[in-house]
Amino acid sequence: xxDNDFDAASNFVQEKPWRLVNIVQSLRPYLAGGGxxxxxxxxxxxxxxxxxxxxxxxxxxxxxxxxxxxxxLLGTSAxxxxxxxxxxxxxxxxxxxxxxxxxxxFVDLTFPVHISPFITPFQGSVTLDIQHGKSNSLGLNSLVLxxxxxxxxxxxxxxxxxxxxxxxxxxxxxxxxxxxxxxxGVENLYGAMSLWTALAGVCVGLSAxxxxxxxxxxxxxxxxxxxxxxxxxxxxLGLIFPLAxxxxxxEVMRLNDHRVFGVYVVGNIWFILLMVGVSSFFLEKVDQxxxxxxxxxxxxxxxxxxTGLANRRKFFEFGxxxxxxxxxxxxxxxxxxxxxxxxxxNINDAAGHDMGDKVLVMVSRAMQKSVRxxxxxxxxxxxxFAVLLPDSTPDGAEHVANRILASVNSLCILxxxxxxxxxxxxxxxxxxxxxxxLEDGMKSADSALYEAKRNGRNQLLMADSAGQSQxx
Length: 472
Ligand SMILES: Nc1nc2c(ncn2[C@@H]2O[C@H](COP(=O)(O)OP(=O)(O)OP(=O)(O)O)[C@@H](O)[C@H]2O)c(=O)[nH]1
Prior knowledge:
Pfam families: GGDEF. The chain is built from 21 helices and 5 strands. 36% of the residues are buried. It folds into 2 domains: 17-224, no CATH class; 312-468, 2-Layer Sandwich (Alpha-Beta Plaits). A hairpin with a 2-residue loop joins strand 2 (376-381) and strand 3. It is of the alpha+beta class. It is 68% helix and 7% strand. Guanosine-5'-triphosphate is lined by residues 306, 340-345, 348, 353, 356-357, 360, 382-383, 453.
């Protein structure tokens, strides 16, 4: 694994700052302020008798004073919610006041009673409007918008972010439909909801949505990683494309050609399919990168950096796995070679550390070439190596050990062997019998290796000839 590979892998693993979450959360007071401004503007309009402030398009729907009051209270509640305990208490109080108003409203809408006029501020103006045949009523849409926002704030206070998000989304959705109606000039879409109610409703609904940015779905939409980018790009396109297409289609339909409605349906289906296709493309790319990084991290965790051989960790993993296998099956057994380069310190001292490293790399290659593909050569540390030979025989293990001795002896390392003679190593060999542990095998092979060193180095010693016979 090169340094660049490692950087790429660690970039992938390191957590990036989730800045967008903070940015979206910081929008909350402004949006809540928007709701407060519109709500109080409407009430002020009723107070001074300035109609435009509560009926922006005349003759069109007006913002009912109770709706304006509730929007003002909810905006204030959203503004205070993250403050000190007193303000949070006040904020909760305001939510319950709104819910109480909504209950009265609901009773009025459901049963043949009229309680709301008793709690409505500026009821006189409302009565006058109705007498003059102007629209000024409490609508079901506004009720759902207010209850949705209030529920979202309550769930936010209880830290149920996903539920808070779902309710705020619902709350903002309803006035958003009315806004589209105003944009398209289609009365059926906005019905009895005034432009001010729609604007203030979107503001308070979105302010409730913004405060939940650290959880639920929104957190993933705001992710700093590729999937967040894909989602955001698609959300913006998903907003613009159907809106623009809808606008065009509506213009054509106004000319009484209703066949273009099919174009709208097919256009949107086509658009969704395209977006899904683009998502799959990016998802696959990200997943590919993740798979590659995982592989690199796995390699880094199990490989010796200098020689590319298996490291100590891999040696123990492989050894324990193979021991389980010989315990279960009746194969020839697992053989272990413990190996140590002779007088390696001299190489470092005489020719420098770089030459020492070069020797280690070349010796590792020679060892790797001398074994079967099922064997595992590992560097346990320094100039100490080990080979695990699964399903082998005494002759087979001896043969491999001698092949390693010969191939290391015959290495030609410019700057060392040409001046100081061949590199040599000593090997101790043991068999790991069923029921014994890897540590037992290492102990026996180490003793044999120690004897080989004492006997003059550059040789193989089987554990039995070192007086510790382990195989029959
Ligand atoms: N160049 C290099 N040297 C290393 C590395 N790891 C350990 N060494 C050196 O290897 C040397 C091991 O020396 P010793 O333990 O005395 O062994 P030896 O000189 O081979 O002597 P015997 O084993 O008795 O034959 C030390 O000088 C370590 O600094 C490495 O990654 N690169």
